[in-house]
Predict the structure of tRNA-2-methylthio-N(6)-dimethylallyladenosine synthase.
Amino acid sequence: MDNLVDQDTQSQSENTTEARDQNEATRKVFIKTYGCQMNVYDSDRMNDALSNDGYVKTETPDDADLVILNTCHIREKAAEKVYSELGRIRKLKEERAKDGKQMMVSVAGCVAQAEGAEISRRAPIVDLVVGPQSYHRLPELLTRASNGSKVVETEFDIQDKFKHLATPSKEAVRKRGVTAFVTVQEGCDKFCTFCVVPYTRGAEVSRKVEQIVMETERLAAAGVREVTLLGQNVNAWHGEGPDGREWGLGELLFRLAKIDGIERLRYTTSHPRDMEDSLIAAHRDLDILMPYLHLPVQSGSDAILKAMNRKHTRDDYFRLIDRIREARDDIALSGDFIVGFPGETDQDHKDTLDLIKRVTYGSAFSFKYSPRPGTPGATLEDQIDEQVKSERLAELQVLLSTQQKDFNASLIGKTIDVLFEKEGRREGQLAGRSPWLQPVHVNAPLDLYGEIGSVEIVAASANSLEGRLV
Ligand code: 5AD
Ligand code: SF4
């Protein structure tokens, strides 16, 4: 019941102005989210748009009048996963039909964008295929699809979307907790040769400063304490500031830091080529910008970086890391790595291991290269054997998880700030996050929920910390 509209909801678009017919039966929507944080943000936006149209959220597809799969296309088998989920949903839809009830089915997200009409051809139960740039039009598209015609909407008009996205109610924000995402940038112009994002999310677009400030102010007023700015290339964000100058992400962070109630800022995901001086300065001068930076390098080999079209060398990356650490010495780095890109030799792989040893990561994500249809990497010769990819991934992950464990253990005995975000797993516990994003479990009274407490770390495991209130 996350999405009931309350009195605080201000009209920002035509989606929010309609008063709901009191007699209208409540309809239920189930949204399943795959993939990245931007999909999490987008699913919330879809819920907001639909709540203004009379839908309430349900946690299971069983009793849903509308099922939306918000899909991811970044790595292999994503589309296959969606089709097998659609197989399960087909049975539910048929059962509901026996009871004389309708179940609308929609595929959203990057698989929708990439496959378009092919989806409803392969899975005729799908009523609506909707790409990420059209979520603000969901209610209207659903009305069109409800009379039995198949609707496919994969147009690109990002600014239009941001202008018309429904505003969540204060109640909805509160239920989502004290941390929130705000998309500030979408799409990508970098065209790394392994990546589908420039095709599924389109060209790089930055949201306007006023929109971002307004959304963050609303979140803060509803009790949000920590905001993570999202973008496929978030540090490429730029826009005109109120002073008439062109701002980068650094200036934007300084502006958002002034908003009452916001106590922590984060951003993700960044590209090494867009780490401007003002952003590094923000890490030096802004206490509420958390000392954690996700800065994927993908490979430690110059030859592979070139083949990936990353447009920087390993030395450029080392120099950049030095500058960032000079500005903020307690910063923890996180990264993404791909093993087995076409042509990757044993030596290239060793170079990646060496880079990891030199940089030292607090956490990281690593993947086997997965050829994506339509990307240049997929047609390269010298595709690497699956077995070799698996071995290289295992080796890399041993190293990365050792670094992560060591980093967690290094905090034992230290007193750190923890933002309490939810009840813990055990009775009497609250769970929160450290400045470096580690989950921290603490025995603490419930009224500390939403507060930042001083916590002495007493134990560390591979994935979390345990502490006691100071
Ligand atoms: N194969 C494997 N990993 C990929 N990523 C993106 N595309 C691919 C691919 N084709 C990884 C990158 C990126 C992260 C979000 O997903 O490491 O940073
Ligand atoms: Fe994909 Fe990131 Fe490269 Fe853009 S910069 S193409 S989103 S990996």
Remarks:
- The radius of gyration is 23 Å.
